[in-house]
User: What shape does this take?
Amino acid sequence: MLLLLGPQAARGVSTVASKMGATLSVVHRDSLIDILMTGLGGRTWTGKENLLKALSTIVTNCKDGLREASSRVRTEAMIEVILRESRKEQPFYKKHALHALGDVLRDLEVDRFDEVYDAVKDIFKEQEPGSDNKEEGEEEVSGSRSERLLLTETVYETLGKAWPSNRDTQGDPPHINITLVSD
Assistant: This one.
């Protein structure tokens, strides 16, 4: 029953967080975050991306309170959960997880660029010319190419959001191959 209520409940939480914004009490905010993080455990299921969206919405609307030292443990745990989810294999879900991760890191002003890059670097390898593409039907190729392009777009957006704003922590960026895709 909880599995069936998950996506709808997550959309409801997202709406509440959007409407209440920073007026959401700390107790309720933390309770909602804990519930969403618990729901993100386990396998991927249809609608699970709504939990990521709800978590991201709470962070966006309550970022000032979540930046406080008293929330540090909870925000670190939340980032770890979203990072874990961003390593999942399903491109559709991975895209949503990366989008949420980028928004959370940007809004909380947390420097985790290296970990984000580690989570997405395999996507760059898949885009390289000569990478091992299995033979697929024409429609499958078109669909998967479109899906890969959307995922790649999200990867670049997430890396941009995760880029550290503090010059001291920027260091030398990892070598990122940018491959232009043309039809």
Q: What stands out?
A: The CA atoms of residues 53 and 140 lie 28 Å apart. The chain has one domain: 2-170. Confidence is low (pLDDT under 50) at residues 179-183. Residues 2-170 form one domain.
